[in-house]
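Good morning,

Both structures are done.
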Amino acid sequence: MTDDTVLELNDPEQNDSLRVVLREGARKLLAAMIESEVAAFFYQTAGWFRSA
């Protein structure tokens, strides 16, 4: 098997509709995960201050 296909993912000419939708979904998912982690950190930190 020597028939390999390599895609240049950072090529601006490859911004078809599917890639745009997937990229936006990934950004939203990452933002939600970060917000969740920050909220959990603040919740744990607030509990630490109350018990001190």
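Second structure follows.
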Amino acid sequence: MARMMPASAIEDEAKELDAALDVLGLTSETRFFALSRVPTPEVLLETVRAHRAIENALHWQLAVWFREDAARNRKDSGSGNIAVLRRCALDVIRRDTYKGSL
């Protein structure tokens, strides 16, 4: 069963773990999640992995198909506007049932 702890206690434990791993030459990563319920560790791990898989797939498609990482539009709200257009275009591509080449 997961336990509820104050944030300061969690941070202290994370620092202790980091110090112990540093002695061994290892590193760790701490993530905090705001949840409405306390799931089992197995359910939490499955949920996080599923979310990351979705995010990674979306980023890969945007980076490869639209070369989003190479984009140079940074002025005002241009980058946000083009990001919305890319996601809309990606949605259209996904919904298209035509089996030929784009």
